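How a chain folds remains the central question behind the approach discussed here. No coordinates are needed to read the tokens, only the vocabulary itself. For completeness, the protein is quoted in full, as a sequence line and a line of structure tokens:
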Amino acid sequence: MGAEVDVVIIGGGLAGLAAARRLHRAGVPWRLVEASGRLGGRVATDVIDGHLIDRGFQVLNTAYPRLGTLLDTGQLNLGYFTSGVLVRKGDNLLRLVNPVREPTGGPGTALAGVGSLFDRLRFAALATGCATLPTSRLLAAPETSTETALRRAGLSDAFIEELLRPFLSGVFIDRELSTSSRVLAMVLRSFARGRIGLPAEGMAALPLAIAAPLPADLLDLDTPVAEVAPGRVRTQAGDIRCRAVVVAVDPPAASALLPTLATVRMHSYTTYYHSAPEPPLTEPILLVDGGRRELVANTVVLSNAAPTYAPTGRHLIATSVVGPTAPPEPTIRAELTRLYGRSTADWTHLTTVAVPEALPAAPPPQGKLRKPVALGEGLFVAGDHRDSPSIQGALTSGWRAAGAVLDELRAG
């Protein structure tokens, strides 16, 4: 390759693309190298028998602040989920919704048989505080684990175990709820303020939309990086000389390129995709297991929210399990029969997607959630392990890293 450019970005995921967008806007010469043959990193979509299969169950929250900087979410043609959950508890399927988003569902939520009325009032107060208080106050509150924070809010064991643990374990990919209370606050804030949806063309449409304004000839796919050093990036095609390097790959790969980085523990999960001739539910709503069986984190009929996820006459169901060990598909199918309360015998198992390094663990202390992106000597790092473990965190970290690069280039 033997090239020279001001900034090399390693990694074409959300963080790398956000960094490229900011540098491009600033008029700084840059180049992005990506080891695989596509953009998006951990956000990807495949097509199986006409169904859109995301690389694990993922959704987009319209309240993510950085999204508005990078694209108009209207261009994604989002299909939305109900702002609430269904809880399977014995023979009953209980519906709890956000009364702000779903006013007609408020009375049913108040009387639903999960925890007590006081639980629901206390949780509503917790979520409202996260939605309305300044971020600086939320991040200045005493930090603890998510589970401890929920119990300190006065929530009962039943409410936590039957609703919040199964729901939040799918959000954090953390069954123990050891995730920082500050991450919890940011998640509750985004859920209260935004809507949850799926792009009509699959989650892969998100990175493609972010990359759309970038010149294609500056995006080098199928270009693995072997070594990073101040002022130089070594690829299989040759060295690239540069003034700054932004390493925006997943945490294990980042640690391999930048040995001074602390090791980041990753959470894993598995999503089972089934196709059915009839939907087991007609509502686009997440279903969780309130029976404390701790097998299925959640299941949802994706095509109820985004009909484009399944071909005509079929319906796509995604079921997620937290942890490194994936149960056999027949075990999951039996659980789905119980959860939905109907036979799954005519369902087709499309595929099982295991994501062993899906999301960085974020136990306390996380501080202000923003970890340094400038490492010195023209080396920078970006990714959701530098901010909150989320799409928002990945985009924000890339944007911050690019800002730090611009500051250093101007100073130099």
Summary: The radius of gyration is 22 Å. The chain has a mean pLDDT of 94. The first helix runs from residue 14 to 26.
